[in-house]
Write a structure and sequence with these properties.
This protein is α+β, with helices and mostly antiparallel strands. The protein has 2 domains: 138 residues, N-terminal domain of MutM-like DNA repair proteins (Alpha-Beta Barrel), CATH 3.20.190; 111 residues, Helicase, Ruva Protein, domain 3 (Orthogonal Bundle), CATH 1.10.8. The chain contains 6 helices and 11 strands. Strands 1-7-8-5-6 form a 5-stranded antiparallel beta sheet, with helices on one face. Strands 2-3-4-9 form a 4-stranded antiparallel beta sheet, with helices on one face. α1 crosses α6. The longest helix is centred in the last third of the chain and has 21 residues. The two termini are 29 Å apart. Bound molecules: zinc ion.
Length: 276
């Protein structure tokens, strides 16, 4: 499932390939994925404008657009949300994926358009596509990002401490709450808790200052590493998240349970709440 690193990869693909290009058509508008907007809403809002900036906050991605013919007000933001398994693919004039044009690092080649949920066509023949078999992604004009917390990559230790300080919920639930901190999903949360040897069930009000500092460090490292390595699935503890798995650091059995409403794995020895 896309977390901050996957969405950042999608942002980088768009920035690398179609920044500055003029939009000439919007196609494949899936009424479910694109609701409440119609194909006409997208056409009248975006055609003739250029993508001038590609932004990301947590898992929300959006493209800022230029004024028409360089005059007047800027256009609407084109919001792209990857949902549970969506990706961004950019193709050339002949319909082939451009080099580094797939946010999941797929191979270049002929693009199969079966799962295209929205396609933005540009004057130079390129096309930006939201590809999403499960239809849980979303395309929005002027997406509302005000309800999202700060982006996890931007949060310094002082702010992180403040975000974690309120209430008595488990640390795992708090990390997944996008209104508090935007971008951390299930895999990244398990990875950073394992890296810092903290029980996922530990209440936020019982975290020691040294634990909060270790968790903040682990978050920054996990984000940087997974962006560089190609996604949240590349974390060190991720291969051990299965029955019979053992901790890659100390060899103790991995334990499994539901924490913060999500399937959670932790090291029985090093992340035990009694001793942690
Ligand atoms: Zn361990």
């Amino acid at each position: 499932m896309p977390e901050l690193p996957e969405v950042d990869s999608a942002r980088a693909v768009i920035e690398r390939t179609v920044l500055g290009q003029r939009i000439v058509a919007i196609e494949d508008v899936d009424p479910y994925v694109c609701r409440p907007h119609t194909a006409e809403d997208f056409e009248s809002g975006l055609v003739g404008r250029r993508i001038v900036r590609v932004m990301r906050r947590g898992k929300q991605l959006w493209c800022e657009t230029s004024p028409l013919r360089g005059q007047g007000a800027p256009g609407p933001h084109l919001g792209l949300h990857l949902g549970m398994g969506g990706r961004i693919v950019v193709t050339d004039r002949s319909g082939r994926v451009v080099p580094d044009g797939d946010s999941t690092h797929g191979l270049a080649g002929e693009h199969q358009d079966r799962w295209d949920r929205c396609t933005v066509r540009f004057a130079n023949g390129m096309a930006l596509r939201l590809v999403d078999k499960r239809r849980l992604g979303r395309v929005r004009l002027d997406p509302d990002v005000a309800a999202l917390g700060p982006d996890a990559l931007d949060v310094d230790l002082r702010e992180f401490r403040r975000l974690l300080s309120r209430g008595t919920t488990s640390i795992k639930a708090r990390l997944l709450d996008q209104s508090v901190l935007a971008g951390i999903g299930n895999l990244l949360a398990d990875e950073m808790l394992w890296q810092s040897r903290i029980s996922p069930a530990k209440r936020v009000d019982q975290l020691q200052p040294t634990e909060v500092a270790a968790l903040h460090r682990a978050m920054r490292q996990a984000l940087r590493r997974s962006i560089a390595a190609g996604g949240s699935h590349t974390g060190r503890v991720i291969p051990a998240r299965h029955g019979g798995g053992t901790c890659p650091r100390c060899g103790a059995p991995m334990r499994h349970g539901t924490v913060g409403g999500r399937s959670t794995w932790w090291c029985e020895r090093e992340q035990d709440e009694q001793h942690g």
